[in-house]
Amino acid sequence: MGNQTIYTELFLSGLSDLPALQLPLFLFFLLIYLLTLIGNFLIISLIVTDSHLHVPMYFFLGNLAGLDLCCSSVTAPQMLFDLRTRRRMRTVTACPGAPGQWKCPQNGPILENKHPNPEFILLGLSDLANFQIPVFLMLILIYLATLAGNFLIIFLVAIDSHLQTPMYIFLGNLSVLDISTPSVSGCHLYFDTITGNNLVAYSTCIAQAFFFSLLASTEYFLLAVMSYDRYVAICHPLHYATIMSNTKCVQLASSAWAMGSIFSLVHTLSILRLAYCDSTTISGFFCELYQLILLSCSDTSLNNLLIYTVGLISALTAFLITFLSYVYILKNILRIKINHGRQKAFSTGSSHLTVVLMYYSTTIFNYIQPKPKNALVSRLVSIIYTFFTPFLNPLIYSLRNTELRTAVFRALVRVAKTIK
C-alpha cells in the first residue's frame, strides 16, 4: 500500500488577502451581524408576546427571522473571529477530537494525555489563611441576611393583594434569582471551608457552572424586562394596566427565564467537548464557565467565540432595552413641572436603576475579558455580584419603596391579630 497523507485541518482564506481592510471590514460586518441579531430577536419576541400577531403571516415571518438568525450565526462568527485573531486553520470536523484522546502537536513529538473527567481543585479561601475564617463568617452572615430579605419579599408579594401587580411579580422573580445565585455559587465554599476538602467532581463542577450561568443570564433579561415595566408605568401611566396585563407579565418573565436557559445550555454544551490535562486548579470559590475554558488544554477558540457572540447578544440586547427605557423615562421626568410628581416618578425608577448599574458593572468587568489579568481582583468582583448584590437588592427596593414598607406593616398587624 502506498503512503497516504490525511489532512485534518483546512485553511480558510477569508479576507486575509486584504490586510489593509481587515479592521474596517471586521467592524462593518460586526455591526451588521449585531443589527441582524437584534432585529430578528425583536421580531420573534414581538410575535411571541403580542396576541395581535398570532396569525399565519407573522408565524411564517417568525420562522424566517429564526432562519436569518441561524444563517448569520453559522457563517459570520467564524469570519469575525478570524479577522480579529488572524487564525485561519480549522479542523475538518470544525472542532477538536473527542476528550480523552492523545493529542499530537505539529511542532514536536511530545504527546499530551488528556483527562475527560478530572477532579477540580477550588482554591476558595484556602490561599487567604489569615482572613479565611473572618471572610467565611462575613459571607455566611450576608448569605443568611440575603435569604431573609428575599424570602420576605416573595412572602409579601404572595400574600398581599396590593402587591400582586407586574412590578412586584417581577421583583418576586428577581428575589428568586437573588436567593438562588449565592446558594449555587457559595455551596462549595461553605463545605470546603468547614471540611478542608477542595476537590470537586467534574460533573458537579459542570452542573454548578450551568446553573450559575442560567441565573446570571436570566437576571440580565429580567432587569431589562423590569426597565421596560418602569418605562410603561412612568411614560404611559393611563395605559399601564392594559399594556402590562397579567398575561403579558407572565410571558415576559417566562421569556427571561427561557432565554437565560438557552444561553446557559449553549455555553455548557460547548464546555463538554473540552479535555483537561495536568492543571485543574480553579482560582475561585465556585466553577465558572470562563475558568473551565482557561484550564482546558483543548482548542478553546469556539468557546471564546461563543463568549463574545452569545454573551454579547444577551448583554447587548438587555443593555439596549434598559438604556432606551431609561432615556425615555428621563425625558418624561424632565417634562414634569410639578416637583412632587417629578420626585415620585424619579423614586419609582431610581431603585431599579441602582440595581441595574451595580449588577451590570460588576459582571461586565469580570466577563468582558475571558482571561482576567488579576485572579484576586476577579475573585473579589465575583463575591460582589454573587453575594453583595443579592444582599443589597431587598434593601434598595424596601428602603425606597413605601408600598413594600406598608406591606410589611400590614403583615405584622395580621400576625399580631392572629396571636391575640
From TrEMBL:
<dbReference type="InterPro" id="IPR050516">
    <property type="entry name" value="Olfactory_GPCR"/>
</dbReference>
<keyword id="KW-0812">Transmembrane</keyword>
<dbReference type="InterPro" id="IPR000725">
    <property type="entry name" value="Olfact_rcpt"/>
</dbReference>
<feature type="transmembrane region" description="Helical">
    <location>
        <begin position="380"/>
        <end position="399"/>
    </location>
</feature>
<dbReference type="InterPro" id="IPR000276">
    <property type="entry name" value="GPCR_Rhodpsn"/>
</dbReference>
<keyword id="KW-0472">Membrane</keyword>
<feature type="transmembrane region" description="Helical">
    <location>
        <begin position="199"/>
        <end position="223"/>
    </location>
</feature>
<dbReference type="GO" id="GO:0005886">
    <property type="term" value="C:plasma membrane"/>
</dbReference>
<protein>
    <recommendedName>
        <fullName>G-protein coupled receptors family 1 profile domain-containing protein</fullName>
    </recommendedName>
</protein>
<dbReference type="InterPro" id="IPR017452">
    <property type="entry name" value="GPCR_Rhodpsn_7TM"/>
</dbReference>
<feature type="transmembrane region" description="Helical">
    <location>
        <begin position="350"/>
        <end position="368"/>
    </location>
</feature>
<keyword id="KW-0716">Sensory transduction</keyword>
<keyword id="KW-0297">G-protein coupled receptor</keyword>
<feature type="transmembrane region" description="Helical">
    <location>
        <begin position="25"/>
        <end position="48"/>
    </location>
</feature>
<keyword id="KW-1003">Cell membrane</keyword>
<dbReference type="GO" id="GO:0004930">
    <property type="term" value="F:G protein-coupled receptor activity"/>
</dbReference>
<dbReference type="GO" id="GO:0004984">
    <property type="term" value="F:olfactory receptor activity"/>
</dbReference>
<keyword id="KW-1133">Transmembrane helix</keyword>
<keyword id="KW-0675">Receptor</keyword>
<dbReference type="Pfam" id="PF13853">
    <property type="entry name" value="7tm_4"/>
</dbReference>
<feature type="transmembrane region" description="Helical">
    <location>
        <begin position="256"/>
        <end position="276"/>
    </location>
</feature>
<keyword id="KW-0807">Transducer</keyword>
<feature type="transmembrane region" description="Helical">
    <location>
        <begin position="135"/>
        <end position="159"/>
    </location>
</feature>
<feature type="transmembrane region" description="Helical">
    <location>
        <begin position="305"/>
        <end position="329"/>
    </location>
</feature>
<keyword id="KW-0552">Olfaction</keyword>
<feature type="domain" description="G-protein coupled receptors family 1 profile">
    <location>
        <begin position="149"/>
        <end position="397"/>
    </location>
</feature>
<comment type="similarity">
    <text>Belongs to the G-protein coupled receptor 1 family.</text>
</comment>
<feature type="transmembrane region" description="Helical">
    <location>
        <begin position="60"/>
        <end position="81"/>
    </location>
</feature>
